[in-house]
Amino acid sequence: MARRRPRRLIVVGNGHETGAVEDTMALYQDLEDWTRSTFDVEAVDYRCAAQDFVTTDKIPYVGTSPGHRGILVSHQLSVSRRKHR
């Protein structure tokens, strides 16, 4: 019998400006609570925080991650939307 590969889900949210939030764990917990109420989640394996990357030409980027052609990334989408409304 073939082994089933575990299914993974990446959830992002609760964006905030660097240094604007004192309790980052509360944001993680809020996002986890929403995720568990929306999806059948067995475990949360990782948590991370990152800053929004802004390209030098200010144009949003969607494409492959350098060095990881199997991973697609997008940057600056929410930042651009705010600036160009």
Automatic annotation (TrEMBL):
Protein name (record): Uncharacterized protein
Species lineage: Bacteria, Bacillati, Actinomycetota, Actinomycetes, Propionibacteriales
